[in-house]
């Protein structure tokens, strides 16, 4: 995947998480908090512009979209003022998903779901799950899979085993990232209402980060055979 495309899809994932219009600064803030300050700000700006240009995101100007519908402003000296007479400062552009987002979201639902699961974007993942597509296409779970108590217990055991394997590795950014993924998977697996799709997506991501260790292979087999 191109680096630019990854930035674009991360922004779309954040927009899917949102339940209302987002301003440019809100998206930037959420992007930074989710992906860290090490991210390239110029790439973020380029990705956001690309999404606006191709109609994946649509932009609303608060000056022309909102103010024009407001009641005319009355000034004690100048009388009635029209919107074009006013100058606004500190107002941000509003953005929402545009018409081109439909095909992109369906085509890239697997990657978007991976981002959503990894970053705890629960609302985004829920919206992706409700799309009129078979979720197995992006989770890979068999239709008959059941996350029962026995599977849950084995899953937790294997996740803890994977953390133990990881503790023997030399600390670096990749190991730290894998540790965060394992922690997230354990929290989800141990919850009262675990979501196996989320756990499975994290396991898939984990395999790309640290490779097929004994515990990761065990987890993959556990989720594919039930």
Overview of the structural elements:
Helices cover 61% and strands 7% of the residues. The chain has 226 residues and is mostly helical. It has two domains: 3-129, Arc Repressor Mutant, subunit A, CATH 1.10.10; 149-224, de novo design (two linked rop proteins), CATH 1.20.1440. The strands form two sheets. A three-stranded antiparallel sheet has the order 1-5-2. Helix 1 packs across helix 6 and helix 6 (109-119) crosses helix 11. The radius of gyration is 22 Å and the shape is elongated. The model is unreliable at 63-72, 83-91 and 134-138 (pLDDT under 50).
List the helices and strands and how they pair.
Elements: H1 3-17, E1 22-23, H2 24-35, H3 41-53, E2 57-60, H4 62-66, E3 73-75, E4 79-81, E5 94-97, H5 101-107, H6 109-119, H7 122-129, H8 136-139, H9 149-167, H10 173-190, H11 196-210, H12 214-224
Antiparallel strand pairs: 1-5, 2-5, 3-4
Helix pairs in contact: 1-3, 1-6, 1-7, 6-7, 6-11, 9-10, 9-12, 10-11, 11-12
